[in-house]
Amino acid sequence: MMIINRLRAGIFLGIAAFAIGFVACSKSDNSTTKPNPAENGFDKAAMLTNYADNLIIPAYTSLQTQLGVLEIAANSFLAAPTFANKQALKIVFKDTYLKFEHVSVDQFGPAEAALFTNFTNTFPTDSIAIEGNITRGTYSFNANSAVGQQGFPALDYLLFSPNHLNDFSGANAVNRKKYVQDVIARLKTLTGTVLTGWQNTYRASFITNTRSDSGSPIAFLINQFAFEMDQLKGPRIGWPFGKQSADILFPNNTEGFNAGISVALATENLISLKAMFNGNGSGKGMSDYLIALKKDKLSSDVLTQFDKAINGLKAVPDPYATSMSLHKTEIEAAYREIQILLTLIKTDVASATGVRITYQDTDGD
Amino acid sequence: MKRSFTILTVLYAALLFTASCTKDNALVTTPVDEAVTPYDVPITYNFANADFFKASQRVKMGAELNSYLGTANNAVITSAKANDYFDNKNNLFTTDASLNTSGVTLAEKTADAAYFRGHFATQATNSLSNTVTAADGTAGIIVVGTTKRLVGPTGLESNQAAAKGMMGALFFKEAVTLLTNIPNDDNKTVTNGTTLAQRHWDEAFGNLGVPVNYDPAVTYVNTDPLRPLLWGGYLAERGKEILAGKTIFDAFLKGRAALGGHDKVVVAAQAKIIIDKWEQLNAAAALEYSTIPTRSVNVNNLATQFHALSEGFGFIHSLQFRATTSKLSAADYATLKSIFATNFYTLINEPGFTKLVQAQTILKTTYVL
Predict the structure, then answer these.
(1) Mean pLDDT of successive 10-residue segments in chain B (369 residues)?
(2) Furthest C-alpha separation in chain B
């Protein structure tokens, strides 16, 4: 009896030992696919697929289509540069710029490689460099130093700044018209590059990498949510309103200043950001991931705060430059809500998802 | 008795089986004349008679020399004074006055001291231009927001080239050399409580620049006199994701304890862990500084871009002192070196950042970063 027991014990231990050896041999390289019990079965790959297929790629596709519409409208205006045609063009320009706000948050992967936001939306634009380019008739849009000479802000300046309508009939009209066309062509090329990048290779790596370390899609998304909020608090709304300059206003530095659509752009940006945060209400968004992480209250707090900030912005009429003197109270109120939302995302959401905010370099020396 | 024997046998079998599938230590043969004796691995580097005072002093000296070079932003500096810090002359050290009488110098352990004296001279020359705006071909300052950087004609901050370069040419080089030679060191003859191998191991540890009770989970404030310095600071600054702090510190503890137990195999394994991880940390820093200038948020922010490139320049110089067992080939190293030797104004204006992306790819691929 005792002997059998010993034998059994020996066999059992032998098996256990073998198992230990086996476990030790199989390297833990499957950590990316191993479900995290703290996530309660939440399907992160499905969330990322939703982001790629239902939000990001359609947003670039939509922007690309709309850029075609803009090109046609711009050519009509350039062929007959009248005030009426300019007003018609402004509507199309605004629609296109609004479409851009949907991809602004996607500055990673192919967009980051192409410096998409830099080349499409560096504002305020460098009007002196642009005028120099037009006069000379030679310029290169590819240099990284040329980001301020192209994109939507350049079009905003070229097409809608006061008194520039006449320039489309003056001595430099040919060069100026070509410059407008070149800026639009460049916008189309850049958008095409990023869209193709997503469709060809990036989508596959994006939806399969469910990690949260730096360089992972989830880290990119959280970082970009925070970054866009920083942009809203800074260059889009706060800085022109004097938030970094002791109340000295810089109305000309706003996004879409000449077309007078700054608040509309900021509002669209934030509405789009909310759609990104909640996965467009599909149940497969970052807000749902937070719930899976048992951060229900944070998830709903953020969504509520989105609405408060969006409503705050909606209370500020365009043009923003005028509101800066006529609607200070409303701007202050919206700014406060934006600040609260920024903190929630940059601190609480980042912490809950285990993502480090990396776009601000923390170099100590 | 019989039962416990069975269990032990089986566990031993398990160990053998486990060991048999890890490549590095395939067969453990312990010479009979140097039997392994039991030893405990402590959690702090408080080994009896451990002495790494000189290496620690050089770390402090290095930090203070860097501070002096950095003052060139706002003041004219001289290469004579920088050389005095380097050679420990004329009692310049103030954070710890005992450094002045320590008898140790940075120069005595630095590979190619002339290279660094050259950077001191350049930094001194650049400091004469610290009131003019820098441009391609002209030394001067670059101010973006509250950040101010003094750069040479190609955008290089010579103080960063010196500081980060010296992290390699002095501290990393020393650690690699000492640890590589440990197997040849006498670990039997005890003098003043330690063997030669233990003294060398301790000295290598001193070059890391961490306190004896280092804790990678702690965020050290820069007023803490015992805070990690130089490489010690980089364990956290660029080494978090590769767990450099824990890996290197733990290996120093385990290896030093194993020397006490004459466990050659464990000692060698820990030395390899330290050398490899330290080099990977160096590469991670170089990778980050190749990447920062290419980030969309930093485009045309010359202060940030040039500062990163200057640190990268130093860390690439530092990689020169990697162990002979390094995974980085001589050809790839030459490519990295030539990329960082390029005019920084050219590097940041290249469409698609071709050269910097090439550097990133080499570093990522070689070091699995």
Answers:
(1) 40 41 42 77 96 96 96 96 98 94 96 98 97 97 92 98 98 98 96 96 98 95 92 92 96 98 97 98 97 94 96 98 97 98 96 96 96
(2) 85
Per-residue tokens: A265: 């752009």
The pLDDT assigned to B47 comes to: 97
Encoded tokens for B172: 């990393």
Q: Chain B residue with minimal CA distance to A362?
A: B237
Smallest CA–CA distance, residue B229 to chain A, in Å, is 12
Q: Check whether A6 has a pLDDT greater than 70.
A: no
pLDDT of residue A38: 72
Asked whether B137 and B130 are in contact (CB, 8 A), the reply is no
Structure tokens at B276: 């490899």
The CA-to-CA distance between both ends of chain A, in Å, stands at 73
The per-residue pLDDT of chain A, averaged, comes to: 90
Nearest-CB residue to A21 (from B14, B292, B353): B14
Closest-CA residue in chain B for A223? B297
Q: HEC string of B297-347?
A: HHCCCHHHHHHHHHHHHHHHHHHCCCCCCCCCCHHHHHHHHHHHCCCHHHH
Q: Is B194 helix (H, G, I), strand (E, B) or coil?
A: strand
Planar angle of CA A281, A232, A276, nearest 5 degrees = 15
B298: chain A residues, CB-CB within 8 Å: 361
Query: Which range, of A177-186, A329-338, B4-13, averages the lowest pLDDT?
Result: B4-13
Nearest C-alpha in A relative to B16: A21
> Which backbone phi and psi does B191 adopt, to 5 degrees?
-125, 125
Strand partners, B194: B191
Instruction: Break chain B down into helix, strand, coil percent, rounded to 5.
Output: 60, 5, 35
Assigned CATH topology for domain A41-209: A middle domain of Talin 1 (1.20.1420)
User: What's the rounded Cα separation, in Å, for the pair A115 and A318?
Assistant: 29
Backbone dihedral region for residue A40 (phi beyond 0: left; psi -120 to 50: alpha; all else: beta): left
* Digit-coded pLDDT (tens) for A130-162: 999 999 999 999 999 999 999 999 999 999 999
> CA dihedral in degrees (B176, B360, B73, B83; nearest 10)?
30
With tokens 């030539």, the residue in question is: B338
Q: Tell me the pLDDT tens digit for each residue of A119-134.
A: 999 999 999 999 999 9
Question: Lowest-pLDDT range, A50-59, A105-114, B2-11, B297-306?
Answer: B2-11
What CATH number labels A211-358?
A: 1.20.1420.20
- Do A41-209 and A211-358 have matching folds? yes
Determine the straight-line distance between the first and last CA of chain B, rounded to whole angstroms: 51
ipTM above 0.90 for this complex:
no
Give residue for tokens 């992160």.
A44
Any idea where the domains of chain A sit in the sequence? 41-209, 211-358
Query: B11 vs A17: CB contact, 8 Å cut-off?
Result: yes
- List, as ranges, residues 22-41 from B with C-beta within 8 Å of A: 22
Amino acid at the residue A18: F
Name the helix (H) or strand (E) containing B175: helix B173-181
